[in-house]
Amino acid sequence: MIQILDLREQYAALKPQIDAAIMGVLESGTFIGGPNVAAFENEIAAYVGTRYAVGLNSGTDALTLALRALDIGPGDEVITTPFTFAATTEAIVNVGARPTFADIDSVTYNLDPSRIRSAITPRTKAILPVHLYGAPANMDEIVALARRHGLAIVEDCAQAIGADCGGRRVGSIGDVGCFSFFPSKNLGAFGDGGMITTNDERLARRVRRLRAHGASVKYHHEEPGYNSRLDELQAAILRVKLPHLEGWIAERRSIAAAYHRGLRSLSALTLPARGGVGRHVFHQYTIGVDARDDVKAALAAAGVQTMVYYPEPLHLQPIHHGLRYKAGDFPESERAAARVLSLPIYPELGSERLAAVVEAVASAVERPLALAAR
Ligand SMILES: *Cc1c(COP(=O)(O)O)cnc(C)c1O
Q: Where in the chain is the domain with CATH 3.90.1150.10?
């Protein structure tokens, strides 16, 4: 089976450095809030291009604490996409605010700026674009819209570290960027981890306080916060990996280019947009195809693992029944959920496996049922 992602080869390549980093932490006796966390925060701030970065224990918490630090809560609305991982809207709901959806662009699968305007109400406090699959959202237009209406911007960069838009890295464009170091992300820890990035000193300070039970001075608690810290072990591991990120992104982009060359003649497929508003880091290589589930089954039968990110748009899921959306409200998101299929992509995939995937996709698209029955 060609897996959609295999993390073992990356570890094998970096084993001596990673093992040494882990042993260093074990021997230091410092596991929470040590030198690796502080150094990694500085390294991410420099990489993303912001003045501040604050380590947290997940991307979900990054979104939650960012919203809290912006004083978004009950009575407030946050505009986002229904075509994303549930953590995006879960964070909005968990701070007491209400997600309001705007549909996506059919080509990039990201928020369509022209559809955001009609979702703005007097209660709207922020726009929360997601850079889905590693493709930057159209930040120029989102920033212009937010400025005009006095709204904050929280970027969900969980899938997109290193992507850029008009030469600026995602996470440095809005008021705050939210990153995840979940193992399968482009920069993955050996457990959970997250980070916020910002140029706003006050906001950075507030997130630091929120991550430590609302206390900026130990045992003096100014507000209810969270226990949400990035730990020393994960930071030490991530510090070994960060210098390789640009090389991995280059590999992902060259795999995407090879997929494009191999698949472009198949007219049944919708391939990821090329060009776009900035650098795509291909967290996923996602095609669109009708009868997607048959194609997926055919590929599985041919030994190729694929995934559907995501099979059900959030406005139709039980978690948001209270918002009273219905089928047909966001047709592009619904169409995407029915058609998307993500193919294997990771820096170590290699040209042989890639060629096998291309061949399997071609036969699966031509005769999905025959292959599945084999
Ligand atoms: C992974 C992900 C998150 C959540 O990150 P965790 O670290 O798993 O909490 C949020 N948003 C998107 C778009 C993601 O892909």
A: 245-373
